[in-house]
Amino acid sequence: MTTLNRSRWSQRLGVIALAAALTAGLTACGGESGGKPAGSASADAKAEAGFPRTIEHDKGKTELKAKPKRIVALDNSLVEAVVALDGTLVGGIGSYRDQKTFPAYLGDAVKDTKDVGPLESPNLEQIALLKPDLIVSATVRHDELYAKLSQIAPTVFVKTTGPTWKENIGLLGKALGAEKSATDQVTAYETRAKTIGAAVNAKAGKPTASVVRFLDGPTRVYLPKTFSGIILSDMGIARPANQQNPEEFNIEISEEQIAQADADVIFYTTNSGGEERKAKFLANPLWKRLKAVQKGNVHEVKDEIWMTAVSLQGAHLVLDDMARIFKVDPAKS
User: Fold this and answer.
1) Phi and psi at residue 116, to the nearest 5°
2) How far apart are the first and last CA of the chain?
3) How many domains, in total, are found in the chain?
4) Which ranges in the chain belong to alpha helices (H)?
5) Which residues fall within 8 angstroms of residue 170, CB to CB, at 6 or more apart?
6) Is 78 in the same domain as 146?
7) Which ranges of 111-152 does DSSP label H, i.e. alpha helix?
8) Residue 85: pLDDT band by 50, 70, 90 thresholds?
9) pLDDT score, position 92
């Protein structure tokens, strides 16, 4: 290469470098929106504080280089956790059991969210097209998909979604850079639960409570380790002696074992396919002998709230039900 050519090539490299620097500067100042007002750089820096960070989770460790802005959640309870923490949910599981779409109580927060279900086999191609910068799910749901999901985007897994629902919100808070919001919201819920629970106990004489679920299969009495059970525990609502096992999830009962569901008050839900079984139980003479039935303290509540929401939003709706049923102050701020 001649000296002249080398000089021209150096000049050309200088122009390319300058153009790249200008482009980077414009991107930093304006991004895709074409420009931001002065002073927004400090706001951006604040929003990105704490990143990159490494999240320890049920499947190991995942590095997040920046605050996630495009999130896919592959469990309905995690969908609701992302929404509660003001994350941008581009994809999620909407349909689940009796639920055909995202719950109405999530409102506009999911109006642009793509349903990437079904829960049992999420659409990986659709997820990839959404270009997420974070995918969240649970080992109990998608253990075998973790490696494939991690190839699409940084992926964080909780272990399960029932008894650990509050801990899951805390983990997501770390992943989204929203730790304070997660802590504050869980604390606010727990405070409200104690307030309503104290009012219920004072008014109803510290009643014991049972939660029964009718399914197309075994009928279940839900114990303290479950979503609804945790809410009752947070309220300080007592359970019958046979329902205080801290390790088991539920008791499966036949019609001959109806007495195991007895308490001062009974709440029951019905899942799809459980209507026939519910009718048989409620018509059974053994059911009619339960003290809650004889006192008129039996209440049908929504399965999609008490059983499948497994979220802060669902927990507050359960508290709404409890305040309404017992006619106490709902303790809403």
Assistant:
1) -105, 20
2) 77
3) 2
4) 3-30, 40-47, 76-84, 124-129, 139-142, 146-152, 165-176, 179-204, 227-235, 275-283, 285-288, 291-294, 303-306, 312-326
5) 179, 182, 183, 186
6) yes
7) 124-129, 139-142, 146-152
8) very high
9) 97
User: For residue 96, is pLDDT > 90?
Assistant: no
* Minimum mean pLDDT range among 26-40, 195-209, 223-237: 26-40
pTM recorded for the entire structure: 0.84
How much helix, strand and coil, in percent to the nearest 5, is found in the chain? Answer: 50, 15, 35
313 alpha carbon, distance to own chain's centre:
8
Identify the residue with better confidence: 101 or 128.
Answer: 128
Place of tokens 């080398």: 6
Domain match, 70 and 133 both? yes
* More confidently predicted of 295 and 41: 295
Alpha-carbon distance values, 148 to 114, 116, 282 (Å): 19, 15, 47
Residue 328 vs residue 95, higher pLDDT? 328
**In this structure, what CATH number is given to the domain that contains residue 315?**
3.40.50.1980
Chain centroid, CA 192 distance in Å: 19
Q: Are residues 307 and 216 in the same domain?
A: yes
Angle, helices 165-176 vs 179-204, to 10°: value is 160
Domain limits for position 282: 189-326
Q: What is the pLDDT of residue 273?
A: 87
Same domain for 303 and 201, yes or no, is yes
CA distances from 71 to 21, 103, 146, 186 (A): 30, 18, 16, 21
Structural tokens at position 162: 């029932």
User: What is the rounded distance in angstroms from the CA atom of residue 210 to the CA atom of residue 293?
Assistant: 12
Q: Which residue bears the tokens 């999901």?
A: 149
Residues 6 or more apart whose CB falls under 8 angstroms from that of 231 comprise 193, 315, 318, 319
Asked whether the predicted pLDDT for residue 107 surpasses 60, the reply is yes
